[in-house]
Structures are given as structure tokens and as C-alpha cells.
Amino acid sequence: MKVKICGIKDINTAISAIESGVDALGFVFAESKRKINPESAGKIIRELPGEVLKVGVFVNETKETIEEIASVSGINVIQLHGDEQPEFCSSFSFPVIKALSIGSLDDLSKLDEYSCEYILLDSPKGKYRGGSGVSFDWSILNDYQMKNKKIILAGGLNPENVEEGINAANPYMVDVSSGVETEGMKDLEKIKRFIDNAKSVEREEVK
């Protein structure tokens, strides 16, 4: 099982997550208490191994700004967490993760509209897009055919429930931010426990 830790703001957290086996790190460039500027993200990213995905998170940003931030920071994957349309998402040369808010089975129909490589399924939006610590009803995924999409499960995951989430959704990757924090700060022990628990689950191959 692949794991993404989102909301990285310092090198110590990034290195600790990598030592624990993380596959992707997320850097938030949208309005959020976890927001980081491109220059600071770049300093961290330049210290990271090449095989780890460096994901930049954006919400309803212009293509020009996204590409400029990618150039400055060194991110190599773009996560679009707003109201971006399919045409916009397919206009980048970078791999794209399109985040969708899932409140009901009907919301899953949006998956077919996007051709990007990854789809992130998150809880319904609150004050900010993502990072709310609230999960959606994973049972609605039981009978939905993902049609070869690389599904990333997010929203309300933590070290205690990540195995349940993986078993319910059978995703390609799990993504966590607030679920590995203590008093609003990344907790290295929780990060390690989350990664260990996620990677202990054998993912079913989708036929």
C-alpha cells in the first residue's frame, strides 16, 4: 500500500516520513494552516530522494501560477483540490491528482469525467479543501468499479482506522494530514504508526 503524507512544512518531518517508508509528500500552496511558500518547499524538496513523489496542492489556481510554483519548488506531481474542470486537469505535462469531494454515491459519477492518472476521494469540503479530519462513508465504494483509475483515499484517516479504510476502498494510495498531527503539528510517532499500519495491509488487485 502506498502512503502520502500531506501538509509538509519542515525537513525533519519529511526525512522522518521517508525513513518510515512514505511514497509521496504533499506541499500545500493553497490557503490553509499548512500552507508553505514555493521557496521553502524547494529547500525541502532538494534534500529528498528522487523516488519520492513531491506533490503540490492547489485550489482553483491559474495554470501559469501552478507552473511557476512547480518550477521554483521542484514538485513533480500536481494535486488539484478545487473546482477544476477536466480540460484544465489534462492540460499539464505533470502527472495530475484530481481531488473530488464525496458525499454520496452520485458524486462518484464524476470520476469518469477526468482522464488524469490519479483521483483522490476526499470528504465533503469545509472551510478549506481537505485536511478536515472527517471521513466520508467508505461503504459507498463497495460496488463501484474504479475502471483502472489510481484511487487515493483521503479524509479522516488516522493510524487507528487506516486499515479499515484500505479494506473498505481498496485504494492505490492513502493520504493523511490532520490524522497524523498533535495540536496542529505533524507528530512523527503518528506518521510512523500510520505508515506501518497502512503497509501491513495487502491490497487486492483489481481485475
UniProtKB/TrEMBL annotation:
GO terms for biological process: L-tryptophan biosynthetic process. It catalyses: N-(5-phospho-beta-D-ribosyl)anthranilate = 1-(2-carboxyphenylamino)-1-deoxy-D-ribulose 5-phosphate. Keywords: Amino-acid biosynthesis, Aromatic amino acid biosynthesis, Isomerase, Tryptophan biosynthesis. Its EC number is 5.3.1.24. Residues 3-197 form the N-(5'phosphoribosyl) anthranilate isomerase (PRAI) domain. The keyword Metal-binding does not apply. GO terms for molecular function: phosphoribosylanthranilate isomerase activity. It comes from the Bacteria. Pathway: Amino-acid biosynthesis; L-tryptophan biosynthesis; L-tryptophan from chorismate: step 3/5. Belongs to the TrpF family. This is N-(5'-phosphoribosyl)anthranilate isomerase. It comes from Sporosarcina globispora (Bacillus globisporus).
